[in-house]
Amino acid sequence: MPELPEVEVVRAGLERHVVGATIAAVEVLHDRPVRRHPTGASGFAAALTGRRIAGARRRGKYLWLPLDDGDAILGHLGMSGQMLVQPTSAPVERHLRVRFALTGTDPRTGQGRELRFVDQRMFGGLSVSVGGAGLPPEIAHIARDPLDPEFDDAAFVARLRTRTSGVKRLLLDQGLISGVGNIYADEALWRARLHGERPGNRLTRAQAVELLGHARAVMNEALAQGGTSFDALYVNVNGESGYFDRSLHAYGREAEPCDRCGTPIRRVAFMNRSSYFCPRCQSAPRSVRATRTGSA
DNA sequence: CATAGATCCTGTATGC
DNA sequence: TGCATACAGGATCTAT
């Protein structure tokens, strides 16, 4: 899915283009993206018709649109979700799942506009969060993200260092730190010269602090470039892609030389996807080396 | 509670 | 050409 930088690009676009608009009509074209909504597709559409969007907020990879009465539309893009603002007359996207007609006309085109939720794989979704304008209760378990001014660096470092899981899995644990996904986890680990299978409790305090700093930095840099894109799936509300994929050092670079030492980048299976790392700069922890050589 | 693995879904790329 | 397999920026549920 889009990770924090990509979701923030979408949030900023929503803030600019749909805040203040009233929802004139809602059409749900597929049930799955509204599966979290208790009253189903018809209830979702009925609940939102006529209501006004008052803001656009984000925590980690979750987005929500506060309504002016204290409720909110809560959304997650999953692996392939998009939020697009389109003229009503724009052709319907192949994977259009939900469309919100907005009142008023676009001053540039003189036409009506729609907010469209497009999602090929449908791991993402939308729901109405009762009383969720401030922070939807459904995502109370999601930690703050490292771009949040109130993120507690010291508390994160302390918790990380009590855990026995590999540090990559911990970076992906949205209850510990949110917003980090597979790409930026690999990039932060490469920058920190740490192997993803090193247990959290075997990091020094300094290593943990440095790793957090790199995670924050890589996401800030990606955000400044409009996010990372490999294909047309990762776009802002205007359908435009970012350029950060040109700056990646590890992710997706199997067999290419490490930008620091020239050793070929390796890819290994991890949680039904892949991890990329430099086997020289990011040396495996003792336990992993022992397992691999059969000498454990 | 912490951990590791399976699962939801559709599309594309690759190999036989 | 058809068919099978692997893989994809994620979260959640499950058993242990």
Kindly give the count of domains.
2
- Per CATH, the architecture of the largest domain is Orthogonal Bundle
DSSP strand count? 10
What is the H/E order?
Answer: HEHEEEEEEEHHHHEEH
Mean pLDDT: 94
Task: Explain how this protein is built.
This protein has 296 residues and is of the alpha+beta class. It folds into two domains: 136 residues, N-terminal domain of MutM-like DNA repair proteins, CATH 3.20.190; 141 residues, Helicase, Ruva Protein, domain 3. Helices cover 25% and strands 20% of the residues. It is built from seven helices and ten strands. The chain has a four-stranded antiparallel β-sheet. Helix 1 crosses helix 6 and helix 3 crosses helix 6. The longest helix is centred in the C-terminal third of the chain and has 20 residues. The protein is elongated. The two termini are 37 Å apart. It binds a DNA duplex (16 and 16 nucleotides) through helix 5.
